[in-house]
Amino acid sequence: MDAFYHGLMRPFLDLADLLLLVAAGLYLGQQSRGHLLKRSMWLFGALFVFLFLAYAADLTGPAWVSYLMTLLLGLLIAGNVALPGIPGTLLIIACGGMLGGSFETPDASQAVSVVGILGSLAGIAVLLYYPMLLAEWMQKREWQRIAVRILGSWMAASTLLTLAFIVQTSPTP
Predict the structure, then answer these.
(1) Residue 118, Cβ neighbours under 10 Å: how many?
(2) Whole-angstrom distance between the N-terminal and C-terminal Cα of the chain?
(3) In Å, what is the CA distance from 96 to each residue of 55, 57, 109, 149, 166?
(4) pLDDT of res. 173
(5) Nearest to 23 by CA among 61, 82, 69
(6) How many CB atoms lie within 10 A of CB 81?
(7) Distances from the Cα of 104 to the Cαs of 2, 12, 50, 51, 77, in angstroms?
(8) From CA 54, how far away is CA 134, in angstroms rounded?
(9) Rounded distance, CA 36 to CA 105, Å?
């Protein structure tokens, strides 16, 4: 069960994944019902594929790319902009790919664990669907839609500050 709990807690403890999941959930929650279900399935499909690729090929993506995607999603939420059709779907697939590609085992010598992947999927589902349902529920009144947009602007601002900190503390070549 250690692998399951590690997978379950990984999205909550990794800032890049936490911000990206909340931003993706808020962005998906702003979409119409038809796009919401379709795009969330695309996200989970890409997530599942990239989780297994990260395990099998030891692929991991840099965290700053996740932060840039979170910044983009935060700006889209704040501007109440829904990307139409293929660009919006590709953005969500890229988010799923970044989330799946950032998965790491707790120990480099540890064997591939399907239980760890299932735990990670459970944690990701919680962090994605709660903000998505909150944003979808808050589309009834104008002040609620504004509150979701404010949350999106806070996501963008916190991500921008995190990126500035990464740039400031990174060693110069």
Answers:
(1) 15
(2) 42
(3) 15, 17, 26, 22, 23
(4) 65
(5) 69
(6) 13
(7) 14, 14, 12, 9, 29
(8) 30
(9) 31
Other beta carbons within 10 angstroms of residue 85's beta carbon come to: 8
SS3 state at 26: helix
Tens of pLDDT, residue by residue over 35-67, are 666 767 777 777 767 666 665 555 556 777 788
The pLDDT assigned to 153 comes to 92
Angle subtended at Cα 160 by Cα 158 and Cα 166, rounded to the nearest 5 degrees: 105
d(CA 158, CA 150): 12
Residue whose C-alpha is closest to residue 130's, from 32, 35, 24: 24
DSSP of 79-111, one letter per residue? TT----HHHHHHHHHHHHHHHHHT---SSTTSP
Stretch (H or E) spanning 67: helix 63-78
- Phi and psi dihedrals of 136, rounded to 5? -70, -40
Low-confidence winner among 23-37, 67-81, 159-173 (lowest mean pLDDT): 23-37
* Among 167, 101, 121, CA closest to 8: 121
Angle at the Cα of 23 from the Cα atoms of 95 and 124, rounded to 5 degrees = 65
